[in-house]
């Protein structure tokens, strides 16, 4: 990620248990509203929004999960290990939409 991100926010790392536990950041209301407006242009189905992210010095690719009126940013184990991130930590993420 060499340019300014399309959006950036700070949030608490939360866990959602599906078949396996996952760690996420949840977009705040303003960022969620913006993503809802632009998602039709970039989604590849089911509302998933492909992004390139950055937390600290670590960049990664993922897709945002639409859920309960917001978007959930998956934090892969490799990203959390590289940045020393634990459940409940407050971190800042920058996201750039991919098409």
TrEMBL record:
InterPro entries: AF2212/PG0164-like_sf, DUF1905. SUPFAM superfamilies: AF2212/PG0164-like (SSF141694). It holds the Pfam family DUF1905. This is DUF1905 domain-containing protein. It comes from Serinicoccus chungangensis. The lineage of its organism: Bacteria, Bacillati, Actinomycetota, Actinomycetes, Micrococcales.
């Amino acid at each position: 990620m060499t340019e300014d991100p399309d959006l950036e926010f700070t949030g608490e790392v939360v866990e959602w248990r599906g078949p396996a536990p996952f760690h996420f950041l949840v977009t705040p209301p303003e960022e969620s509203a913006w993503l809802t407006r632009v998602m039709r242009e970039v989604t590849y189905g089911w509302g998933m929004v492909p992004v390139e992210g950055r937390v600290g010095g670590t960049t990664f690719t993922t897709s945002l999960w639409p859920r309960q009126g917001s978007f959930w940013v998956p934090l892969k184990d490799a990203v959390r290990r590289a940045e020393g991130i634990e459940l409940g930590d407050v971190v800042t993420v920058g996201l750039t939409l991919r098409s």
